[in-house]
Amino acid sequence: MPFSFELTDRDPSGARRGRIVTDHGVVETPAFMPVGTQATVKSLSPTDLKEAGASIILSNTYHLHLRPGEKLIAAAGGLHRFMSWDGAVLTDSGGYQVFSLSDLRKIADAGVEFKSHIDGSARFLSPESVVDVQLDLGSDIMMVLDHCVGFPCTFEEALLGVDRTTLWAKRSLEAGGARISRDGYERVLFAIVQGSVFPELREKSALELIDLDYPGYAIGGLSVGEPKEDLYSMAGMVAGILPENKPRYLMGVGFPEDLVEAVARGIDIFDCVLPTRNARNGTVFTSRGKIILRNAAFTADFGPIDPECGCYVCRNYSRAYLRHLFMAGEMLGPRLASFHSLYFYLHLLDRMRQVIREGDFSRWRREFHERYGTDLQGNI
Amino acid sequence: MPFSFELTDRDPSGARRGRIVTDHGVVETPAFMPVGTQATVKSLSPTDLKEAGASIILSNTYHLHLRPGEKLIAAAGGLHRFMSWDGAVLTDSGGYQVFSLSDLRKIADAGVEFKSHIDGSARFLSPESVVDVQLDLGSDIMMVLDHCVGFPCTFEEALLGVDRTTLWAKRSLEAGGARISRDGYERVLFAIVQGSVFPELREKSALELIDLDYPGYAIGGLSVGEPKEDLYSMAGMVAGILPENKPRYLMGVGFPEDLVEAVARGIDIFDCVLPTRNARNGTVFTSRGKIILRNAAFTADFGPIDPECGCYVCRNYSRAYLRHLFMAGEMLGPRLASFHSLYFYLHLLDRMRQVIREGDFSRWRREFHERYGTDLQGNI
C-alpha cells in the first residue's frame, strides 16, 4: 500500500487531524513518536509501546550507522524485524547528531566528514549515502540530510544552512526519488525546513523545498536553545506556508505544553526524548504538571503517579513504591516511569485528536494549560 | 485457607512432587523462587513474572528492613500490594545478609548487632524481632533467624551455629508460634537446618528442629563456597532425615544442574539470584548450557537465544539483537535476558514436575545432563 496522508478534520483554531497510511500500519495525526535511538526505546519492549499507544517510533540513523551498522540490520531483515516492532518507523538522517555529537571535521557541499563518538573512526555522510543507510535500516519514513545550525547563529550562517539543505534535498531526489519500494514495502523521504529564527530564511527554505514536492515536510533546527516564543512563531509561520495536503513534522519537540501549542499551529508529527529521558531520572509527567519521584513528600504517598491516568503503572503502583525503586537504584523504576510518561504523551495526542474532531480544540487548550500549570504561550 | 503441603507424586529416584497451598495461591513443587531483593525482581514486572511461570517469589528482609523499612511496607498494605504481586511471597530472616553484607558488630544469644551497609546506622535483630519485621512485610512464608557460618569453618564454629540456631528456633516458636493469622491470611514460619559440611552436625540440627514441628524446613549454610559434592551430599543427607510431609527448601541454590541434582535428592523449593544476576551481565541459560551474549560469534546470529525455548524473548528477538543491546549498554538487554533466564529456570522446574509424575525422572535427569553439558554429579 503506497504511503498516503489524508486530512480528516480541521478545527477552527488551525489544529488539524489526519491519517498517514504506511505499509506498517496507520498513524493517526497529530502523532507523537517515541524515540528508540539505538533500535530500542530505552527500557521498554515493543509490546509496552503498543500498550502505551504508539503507532510509529523514531530511530537514529547516526547511532545505528556507527553501531551495529546498517548492513547488520539489513541482514537481520531491517529495523522492524531486528527490534521486533511491526508498527511504522521513521529514521532521521543523522545530520543533527553529526553536528551535535561527533567530532565534526569538515562540512562541504559534498557532505560531512566526522569522527565517530564511539571509536573515533573517520566517517563521511552525503545526502545520497544517508538515504542508502536508511534504505538498509528499512524505515518507512526517511529524512534527507540537512545542514543544521546552532542557536544563536548569524544570518549568514543560517543562510548557508538553508542553501545547502536545499541543494542536498535536490540531490537526494535526483539520486532515487522520494518514494522507493524495496523488500515489498514503500519508503518515503521527507525534506527539512531550516532557517533558524529568521522568518525570511524560514520562508525561503520552505518555498524552495515545496517546489521539490516531497511527500512530507519537517521543521528542523528548533528546540536547540531558542526562546519558546521563537519556537512557536517559527513553527506556526512555516506550517502556514507548507502545503495543506502534506504531513508537517516538528523535529525534537517537546514538553507537553509545546505539543499543545504546536498542534494549535497546524503541526502533525512530533518526536522527543523528554518523556523517556526525564523518566529515567525519576521525573514524570502528569495531567497537573511534572513530578519528581525521589521527592521525600512521596515517601508514604500510596496514590498513583497521576490519579487521572489509566495506564498500567498508575493502575498497579504507588508513588511510594516508585520512589522506593528510584532510591534503591532499581531498574524497574526507570522502566515503569518511562512507560507512564510515554502513555501520558501518547494519550495527550489521542485527546487532541478527539477534541479536533469535536471542533473543540481552543476550549480544551485553555483547560489543558489551566490544569497543567502553563499558559497559552506555553511559558511555565 | 490455612497453609498446607501435600505430597502428590514420588518418583522411584527419590524426587518428589507436591503442592503448597497459601492464601496467595498454590505453589507446585519442586518450585523455584525468583529473588526480588528490594521488593522487585530486578528489571521485571509482576506481569512478566507470571508470564515466565512464577507462583512464589523471595524477598529479602535485611534489605527491606533497611530501605524502605517494614513500617512503610505495612502502611502500603504489605509486600504483595506494595509491589503489586498477588502470588505467594517468602521472606528470608535477614540472617544471611547480616553475616555477609553488614558491618557485623556483635553476635550473642540475644541476637545480632550490626551496622547498616547503606547508612552505617546501628541495628539489632533478634529471633523475635525478625518475625515482627516479616509480619509487617506480610510474607506468606517467613524464615527464622539462624546463625550462619562461612566456609570453611571449624567444627566448633559450626556447632555454635547449630546450637544457637536451635535456641533461636525455640524462642521464635515461644514468641508467637509458627502459624500466625493477620490481615485475613495465614503466615507460616520455616526453620533452617545448619551444620556446615559436618554430617553429624547437620543431623543434630535437623533432629532438634524436627522436634519443634515447624510447618516447613530449609537447609541453610550451603552454596557458600563448599565443593559441589558437599552441597549435594549435605542436601541429600538432611532431606533424608526431614519429615516426608513437610516442604524442604534448599536456600540459595543454584545452577540448573544443581536444581536437577537436588530434586533427585528430595528437595522441594529453591531460590537463587543466578538467573537474573547473570542475565544482567549478559550471560543466559539455555537447554545446551550457558551462553555469553556479548560474544562476537553472535554478531550476526539471527537465531533465538535457545531454539528449544518458547519464551517471549526467544519468540521475538535474535542473539544478534540482544548482543547489540548489551554492547550499546541498553537497559532492554538485561530485562530481556532476565526474562529468558527466569523462564528457563521456571520451565526446568515445570519439566521436572512432569517427569516426576510420569515416574521417569532418572532417565530425564541423564538426558538433561547430556544436553546441558554437565554430569550426574553436576560438575561442569
Average pLDDT across residues of chain A? 96
Provide a count of the helices of chain A.
Answer: 15
Largest sheet of chain A: 7 strands, mixed
Estimate percent helicity of chain A: 40-55%
Approximate shape of chain A:
globular
CATH superfamily of the largest domain in chain A: Queuine tRNA-ribosyltransferase-like
The CATH class of the largest domain in chain A turns out to be: Alpha Beta
- Rg result of chain A: 20 Å
Number of β-strand runs of chain A: 17
Based on the coordinates given, report the CATH architecture of the largest domain in chain A. Answer: Alpha-Beta Barrel
Give the oligomeric state of the chains in this entry, treating copies of one chain as homo and distinct chains as hetero: homodimer
Chain pair with largest interface: A-B, 37 and 37 residues
CATH topology of the largest domain in chain A: TIM Barrel
**What proportion of the residues of chain A form beta strands (DSSP E)?**
15-25%
How many domain regions of chain A? Answer: 2
Instruction: List low-pLDDT spans of chain A.
Output: none
Structural class of chain A: alpha/beta
The end-to-end span of chain A amounts to: 43 Å
